[in-house]
Amino acid sequence: MGNMLTIAMPKGRIFDEAANLLRKAGYKLPPEFDESRKLILEVPAENMRFILAKPMDVTTYVEHGVADIGIAGKDVMLEEERDVYEVLDLKISDCYLAVAGLPNMSGSDVVAPKVATKYPGVASSYFREQGEQVEIIKLNGSIELAPLIGLADRIVDIVSTGRTLKENGLVELERICSITSRLIVNPVSYRMKDAQIDELVSRLSEVVEGEAE
Q1: Could you say which of 103, 118, 170, 174 would form a disulfide bridge with 165 (CB–CB 3.0 to 4.6 Å)?
Q2: Cα(44)–Cα(47) distance, integer angstroms
Q3: Residue 112 banded pLDDT, cuts 50, 70, 90
Q4: pTM for this prediction
């Protein structure tokens, strides 16, 4: 049990795509793995344990060593700035961070506009780089609601297809950066379990490179 490789993964889309990658890399994850409501899943045949976490918590688990490895979106890594190694771009859950707002808010006529976001760190850095002074309002969900109820002038959020923005009458104003999911490793685990981790990284790299061709 002690030498099991513990992997923290977010629930939802990233989990599904990451589990698919692991299977393509030859790891035998049981079929019920995808349907389980458990928060800790053990796969003794592969000497692996999986922790299912909120996306924002994955980097915390890895930094503190309760997980050896994690799969985290680049957005979370930019926001959290944890002490972890980023070892592989898995090229899954492709999306991007963008500034959006109501169509009539695209001008810069508002002095110190209010910006609602789940990513206050990323948003602050971005607007500082643009030389623009803004007031950041941190929200945890339904960011698109903020401009509609007058809480904020703009939002900074993840955009995948753009459908949610469109359905709520918002438009993309600026694109900040592209986002994919990354494989991250706890620095101590990398020394203690280097053979297991190197094998995992190698097998996943082959799959990722193969799919990119």
Answers
A1: 170
A2: 5
A3: confident
A4: 0.89
